[in-house]
Amino acid sequence: MRGFLLGIIVTLVVVFGGGYLWVSGGHVDSRALPNGPSQFERRTANHAMDEWVDAHAPKQDNPFKPTMDNIMDGSMVYDKNCALCHGSLKQPISQMRTKFYPPVPQLMNFTPDDPDANLFYVTKYGIKLSGMPGWDGTLTDDDIYKVYRAFYRDQPFVRLQPPGTWPSTQQVRGSNYCDLGFKVDQERGRVIVISAIDNITRGAAGQAVHNFNLMMGFPETQGLDLVPLAP
Ligand code: HEC
């Protein structure tokens, strides 16, 4: 029996010790470029992260209402701190997208469907062994929550332009999107908001489909998630 146990211990030491020596001995590619993570790495890491975040993120709704002020604050925080890696409406696919290991999710095309509190938690503390920084100490908790308000995540067809840029009809043509841009007029204490829609798709025809979906209990976006014709 003692010999058997000893055998197990020696095997474990050889396997783990050997593995450690192999990894630390320079056999693992440490470059972020040009390879992306394998399916296995991706799945294991994402699963481990989801479980941790689910267990530790605060259990609360986003404390900020989708008021114009909160949305503007959030979109400014995003533009200044996150757009470089995660993309902006002006440049929906950031050049940094594939420069990290794992690559950076492009949040203009895809916002994770996790609750805001989970996204808040990920943003506050960052993601280990990735290029995602923890923003604790740089941004306040309020700033981070407002970023997620600015995404209009409950409004799939509304897209907010970064501050100082205006929406254009070209960017919504042939789609059901409503793009919004705003500017703060400090002198007169006003906000100027401009929106752009394609009046044919987003107009009566899109409305009819939208209403039909709502009346029949279909997903709101069914048949309407069309990509704009340009650019
Ligand atoms: C220096 C580049 C960089 C900056 C700046 C950055 N991020 Fe990230 N972010 C990343 C990378 C890389 C990942 C992917 C990490 C992963 O998949 O493990 C990521 C992942 C995320 C995720 C997780 C997405 C998912 O699929 O669950 C969220 C949410 C996020 N970032 C939000 C933000 C916010 C909000 C800001 C600004 C306050 C920000 N990030 C700034 C690089 C960045």
Task: Describe the structure in brief.
43% of the residues lie in helices and 8% in strands. By secondary structure, the protein is mostly helical.
Any overview of this molecule?
There is one protein chain. With 231 residues, this protein is mainly alpha-helical. It folds into 2 domains: 49-154, Cytochrome Bc1 Complex, Chain D, domain 2 (Orthogonal Bundle), CATH 1.10.760; 156-231, no CATH class. The chain has helices at 2-27, 39-56, 68-81, 83-86, 116-125, 141-150, 199-216, and strands at residues 158-160, 178-185, 190-196. Strands 1-2-3 form a 3-stranded mixed beta sheet, with no helix packed on it. α3 (68-81) packs across α6 and α5 packs across α6 (141-150). It is elongated and about 80 Å long. The mean pLDDT is 87.
Briefly note the CATH topology name of the largest domain. Cytochrome Bc1 Complex, Chain D, domain 2
Order of helices and strands: HHHHHHEEEH
Secondary-structure class:
mainly alpha
DSSP summary, beta strand count: 3
By CATH, the superfamily of the largest domain comes out as Cytochrome c-like domain
CATH level-two architecture of the largest domain: Orthogonal Bundle
The main sheet comes to:
3 strands, mixed
Compute the separation of the termini in Å: 72 Å
